[in-house]
Amino acid sequence: MKFLTKACFCMLLATSAMATPAMAQDATDAPSGPITVSGGVDLVSDYRFRGISLSNEKVEVQPTITLTHESGFYAGVWGSGLPKTDEYGKVEVDLYAGWGGEVAPGTSVDIGATYYWYPDGKDAFGPVDYVEIIGKLSHDIGPVSATGTVAYAPSQKSLGSDDNIYLNFGLSSGIPNTPVTVDASLGYTSGSLGALAPGGDYLDWTVGATVTAGIFNLGVHYVDTDIKKIGIKEVDTLYDPTVVFKVGVAF
After folding, report:
1. Using CA atoms, how far apart are residues 123 and 114, in angstroms rounded to an integer?
2. Helix-strand-coil percent breakdown of the chain, rounded to 5?
């Protein structure tokens, strides 16, 4: 997820344009329509994808926008800048869609798909775009929300004609009478995307907190993996434990 090109700039303009009517509607207590628009922009100190730095530990801007129908169906776009390469270009755009909703008191499901698109990549070593099917099950246990995630990428050329599965379990909880939410997660990658790490399959984990003040938020997370070092600093540093800072605005 890596970009701030003309497409990103246009997205930010669209975000601003749609945010204004939404706030005006709240101010007049006008009835909302069947479609809700949400989104925002984050500035992150490092773009970590399942524990691995995809930004070479550089700062990236990551905008997003989502349209959600009252039925629970949604579609959206997420993006990030990348270090420029012939293979991936300098932009990642994630196109996603699915359905989410509560199926029992305190229990929600979310089933969707994400298309990872690198629009200015030159496919120097073959296709790089790929599709992943993602399912989530969440349940609230008192003030704590537990979420299990299964992400499956079927066999496709961009993954070396192999498939991949990612499992993640996370916990989050708001601290009473404060704007702080704490969270932690543990993930496991197995399959073609494990090739991002020397040795293949690996674990990743995070722990951190987010402070929210109106439309603004500030996050700090410790990120690590069990990937073994190979002795090449430029490679090993991409898997080193790190603290990722995020400053964002949402609507």
Report:
1. 20
2. 15, 60, 25
**DSSP β-bridge partners for residue 112:** 98, 134
Is residue 200 helix, strand or coil? coil
Task: For residue 78, give every residue at least 6 positions away whose Cβ sits within 8 Å of its Cβ, in sequence order, or none.
Answer: 1, 62, 63, 64, 93, 94, 96
The identity of residue 142, as a single letter, is G
* Phi, psi dihedrals of residue 143, rounded to the nearest 5°: -80, -5
Rg (CA), the chain: 19
Contact 54, 47 (CB under 8 A): yes
Q: Bridge-partner residues for 202, per DSSP?
A: 189
pLDDT band of 199, cuts 50, 70, 90: low
Residue type, 6: K
Instruction: Report how far residue 176's alpha carbon sits from residue 181's, in angstroms, rounded to the nearest whole number.
Output: 9
- Alpha helical stretches, state H, the chain: 6-28, 233-236
pLDDT digits (tens, 9 = 90+) for 163-190: 999 999 999 999 999 999 999 999 999 9
Query: Tens digit of pLDDT for each residue in 118-156?
Result: 999 887 678 999 999 999 999 999 999 999 999 999 999
Of the candidates 161, 96, 191, 171, the one whose C-alpha atom is nearest the C-alpha of residue 135 is 96
